[in-house]
UniProtKB/TrEMBL annotation, chain A:
Its EC number is 3.5.1.44. Keywords: Chemotaxis, Hydrolase. Belongs to the CheD family. This is Probable chemoreceptor glutamine deamidase CheD. The gene is cheD. The keyword Hydrolase applies. It comes from Sporolactobacillus shoreae. The keyword Repeat does not apply. It holds the Pfam family CheD. GO terms for molecular function: protein-glutamine glutaminase activity. It catalyses: L-glutaminyl-[protein] + H2O = L-glutamyl-[protein] + NH4(+).
Automatic annotation (TrEMBL), chain B:
The keyword Hydrolase applies. This is Chemotaxis protein CheC. Keywords: Chemotaxis, Hydrolase. GO terms for molecular function: hydrolase activity. SUPFAM superfamilies: CheC-like. Pfam families: CheC, CheX. Residues 10-46 form the CheC-like protein domain. GO terms for biological process: chemotaxis. Residues 64-145 form the Chemotaxis phosphatase CheX-like domain.
């Protein structure tokens, strides 16, 4: 099992799997090749790299840098055709329900929207997603089957 | 503005001492509330790269109160309790209350976190001779990782690491199991205060 930490990007080939734990407002986005049984996953924290207040950029941290990096990893580095790539995502919840006015609005919603915009830009079809709501998710992607397993505390497990 | 990479051992020692005093006060307040002894480890202070933050047990089921701190230091304060202990705490104030009761249970938990965070911060503010304010608590019950991840969003704009001042609490009856923790995570821009204090000290 390959662990993807906050703001990281990792690549795996079957039979390896990719896992990221405890997604709240963060989004786990996976770009994969079904035929090649390979995948790359990012743990995105924020929608836009223009929000950054300091240098040293981890591309996985922002949606607008994570998706291009995932695409580069799958195409330039591992040689898949961009037309063969598909995507799935999960996360983007809002953990704090209290009437808190976040300085940035609902960050979960903005994260999922930003990922969607990036995927459309590269014309990568979003095959499945489970986003929003107010609970945490742990996700595991199996490149062998192309299925994304989602685990939660209050509503069990499912595969998308 | 100072960055986390500028921190030297004198700064870390100051912060660690502050964290120690703050967490000690809060643990005492908690013991008083529960009328039982709560053990606390010596707080640790670490600069943690973001990818490693959730290496901890990210799926641990916790009740959390998240408070924003402003004034001489800016940052955030998390009070996390394992759900069983959180329920015990709540029942000190509301018999039959629980973390899942969004009305009384939640207000009781938030009130407790107000008191504990208040005693933590007032100890830190007198240590650094600075004024600190706390926001009303934000409440969530779920996976620790998911809650922390959302709380760290603003901090992650400044750096690829966070400065984590962490004190773990143990309930003697629960035998060495995690029961709760206080996390204080100052924003890097708050470090200026720390640097001026360290300079004041070293010139003495």
């Amino acid at each position: 099992m390959i662990q993807v930490g906050l703001s990281e990007i990792k690549y795996a080939e079957s039979p390896e799997k990719l896992r990221t734990m405890g997604l709240g407002s963060c989004v786990g986005v996976i770009i994969y090749s079904e035929a090649g049984k390979c995948a790359a996953m990012a743990h995105v924290m924020l929608p836009d790299s223009s929000l950054a207040r300091a240098g040293v950029l981890q591309p996985g941290k922002y949606a607008d840098t994570a998706v291009p990096e995932l695409v580069r990893l799958m195409t330039d580095i591992h040689g898949f055709s961009i037309r063969a790539l598909k995507a799935k995502m999960a996360g983007g919840a809002e953990m704090f329900r209290s009437s808190r006015v976040l300085p940035m609005g609902s960050i979960g919603l903005r994260n999922t929207e930003a990922v969607r915009v990036q995927l459309q830009h590269y014309r990568i079809p979003l095959i499945a997603e489970e986003t929003g709501e107010d609970y945490g998710r742990t996700v595991e992607f199996n490149p062998e089957t192309g299925l994304l397993m989602i685990r939660t505390i209050f509503s069990g497990e499912r595969k998308i | 503005m100072h960055r986390l990479s500028d921190l030297q051992s004198i700064h870390l020692d100051l912060l660690k001492e502050a964290g120690n005093i703050g967490a000690g006060h809060a643990a005492t307040a908690l013991s008083t509330l529960l009328q039982k002894r709560i053990e606390m480890n010596i707080p640790s202070l670490k600069v943690v790269p973001l990818p490693e933050v959730l290496d901890r047990d990210a799926e641990k089921h916790v009740a959390t109160s998240y408070i924003e701190v402003s004034g001489g230091f800016r940052g955030c304060f998390f009070m996390m309790f394992e759900v069983n202990l959180a329920n015990k705490l709540i029942r000190q104030l509301v018999p039959d209350g629980s973390v899942f009761d969004n009305d009384m249970g939640k207000s009781a938990f938030c009130e407790i976190s107000n008191i504990l965070c208040g005693s933590y911060l007032s100890a830190i503010s007198s240590f650094f001779h600075t004024q600190l304010n706390q926001s009303p608590p934000n409440y969530a019950v779920d996976m620790e990782g998911a809650i922390l991840g959302e709380g760290l969003v603003e901090l992650s704009l400044y750096d690829d690491s966070i400065l984590l001042i962490e004190a773990e609490l143990f309930d003697q009856d629960e035998k060495n199991r995690f029961t709760g923790e206080f996390l204080f995570i100052p924003l890097p821009e708050s470090l200026d205060l720390l640097f001026s204090m360290a300079e004041g000290k070293s010139s003495m």
